[in-house]
Amino acid sequence: MEQHEFDVVVVGSGAGALLAAIRATDAGLKTLVVEKTALVGGTSAISGGGIWIPDNHSMPKSGLRDSVQAAFRYVKTCARGLASDDRVLAYVETARHMARYLGEIGVPYRCVPSYADYYPTLEGAMPGGRTMDPMDFNAGKLGVQDLELLRPTSPGQLVFGRMHINAFEARSMLARERKAKFVLMWMMARYFLDYPWRNKTRRDRRLTGGQALVGGLFTALRKRGITLWLESPLQSLTEKDGRVTGVVVRRNGQDVTVTARRAVVLGAGGFERNQQMREEYLPQPTDQAWVATPPDANTGDAHRAGVAVGGVLHLMAHTWGAPTIYVPKEEKYRAMFVERSMPGCMVVNARGERFLNESGPYPEFQQAMFANHAQTGGAVPAWIVFDATFRANYPIGPIMPAMAVPDAKLRKSWLNTVYWKGETLEELAAQIGVDAQGLVASARRMTEFAKTGKDLDFGRGDNVFDRYYGDVNVKPNPNLAPIEKGPFYAMKLNPGDIGTKGGLLTDRDARVLRADGQAIEGLYCVGNNSASVMGPSYPGAGSTLGPAMTFAYRAIAHIVGKPIALEHPELLEQSELLESA
Ligand code: FAD
Fold it and tell me: Is 233 in the pocket of ligand 1 (CB under 6 A)?
């Protein structure tokens, strides 16, 4: 069998894995990255790239004040005892240092001042600023050849199928701010006038979101000359005397053993693409096809490899849930993050009844679907229903607003696959198999709520989080408008996800733990490969990528013998006292 030797072997090429490799190399370690697919970046590359970083360096510039103490209280409440306090504290303390490091290696971030935490009424929550977005990244720094190796973003995140759009621009357009049309004109001019670049590739030079994040990390990886093996899936871990000593990977059809003198860092994503594991661990019904992550990539390989050397699994019944929709010819389902927050739509079950706040956080959405399905048997799938006014003004899934792309110009194959249409609500109800009386009653009630601005059933638009994605022109509640003008439309929503959050249990330095709580020497784990530090919750946008990279940062410090000490251990003592009080 072929033999190789490195100090550190990193498995996977998502954000956490790449950051681990870069940091390890900066610390003088000879590092190898092995990636299963032919492309770099995993789900991280197709993500929004947002990271949730309490008390970050960019907040004071926006006049925001935060503290580790407040963030600790908030995440601890969110995590509901399913992540250890010292791990939570390690996260909220180290995340800001990691964010600064990102800037130093050429991947700068800035905070989004008005993007609220997902549970803005909990103690310690912030009305904005903890979510940070990557600055746009010039793909010229990476080069066209490597750009082709960067997993491309999903079609849903491109404007006119070509141009990248960043979160600030997307929000401006969705919220129909006045500057939106200038933003669009600028984007188009910038893309189409860039002849030198367009002669080389169709892909946009300006990378945004997850493309900017992974494009930047990939550039940093190349600058350091780090060895990268694509199409080289991890098969198993090697061990000696209870210590992990390396990996076996499949390369060019052969098993290759690689010795890791110091450590193996697992960052091979979740198990969302493994139907068997979904059926074993997740709430039912479940289907890997409903997932918005790259097909065939994250199948829990490294979960199993970790268990085989004694690691324990935790939080396996949880996902980073989000409603998803099917679009013909696309390789994966699309997550519906924000469109459902815009005014003039509602989500109903088979009885035509609403059962949730449509503008609420997407993970809650999936949980509400399962809860209602258990009661009524009719919330999987659920239906998002909207009227002609909504259709005219807002994009939804792959469908652009009717004022830009009227029904006659929509792809014929999308009718009755992506969207359903009826001249009346009764006609629509018959098509989608929903109770017509219930649907009409729900639409009437929403129309009443829109007049007063108060959703008496689910409080839609009552908090800053809901209103972040609303129409600034709609009063009194930017999330509520009548649903009364035909034709009416519906789209089918599945309880999908953007990754699973259960995985190998780790300590605050990302070391994989055995059932007795002892760490496995030489084995570290980050990202969705590990059990989330957020427990079952999603405290704010960026709660998966932020921890993935922060624990990679902490892991390397530990590997080089300089573990990052807790800055505020007294908070742990206080929390223990509170619990025993
Ligand atoms: P990944 O990024 O998926 O990387 C795992 C890598 O490991 C893959 O490349 C995979 O091919 C590889 N791999 C798998 N098995 C093996 C093996 N056996 N050997 C070697 N390699 C292997 N989260 C946020 O925090 N902020 C956001 O803004 C955000 N936006 C999102 C938007 C969308 C549309 C989606 C789908 C997700 C979004 N997420 C976001 C979620 C986030 O992208 C994922 O949770 C995160 O990328 C997971 O990172 P990871 O490194 O664990 O896995």
Answer: yes
The one-letter amino acid code at 266 reads L
Q: Helices in 124-194 by DSSP H: which ranges?
A: 144-147, 167-174, 180-192
Among 173-187, 188-202, 254-268, 523-537, whose mean pLDDT is lowest?
Answer: 173-187
Dist. CA 446–CA 442, nearest whole Å: 6
Check: CB of residue 76 under 8 Å from CB of residue 564: no
Does residue 534 have its Cβ closer than 6 Å to ligand 1? no
- Residue 187 is predicted with a pLDDT of 86
Average pLDDT over residues 220-244: 98
Regarding pTM above 0.70, the answer is: yes
Q: Choose between 574 and 57: higher pLDDT.
A: 57
Q: Burial, 570: exposed, middle or buried (Cβ in 10 Å; 0-12, 13-18, 19+)?
A: exposed
Query: Of 187-196, 364-373, 517-526, 528-537, which gets the smallest average pLDDT?
Result: 187-196
Q: Is 83 in the pocket of ligand 1 (CB under 6 A)?
A: no
What is the whole-number distance in angstroms between the Cα of residue 267 and the centre of ligand 1? Answer: 9
The atom of ligand 1 lying closest to the CA of 133 is 28
- In degrees, to the nearest 5, what angle opens at C-alpha 108 toward C-alphas 465 and 205? 100
Distance from Cα 350 to the centre of ligand 1, integer Å: 33
Share of the chain above pLDDT 70, in %: 98
Distance 289 CA to ligand 1 centre (A): 16
Give the pLDDT band (50/70/90) at residue 176: confident
Residue nearest to atom 33 of ligand 1 (CA): 47
SS (H, E, C) 290-348: HCCCCCCCCCCHHHHHHHHCCECEECCCCEEEEEEECCCCCCCCEECCCHHHCCCEEEE
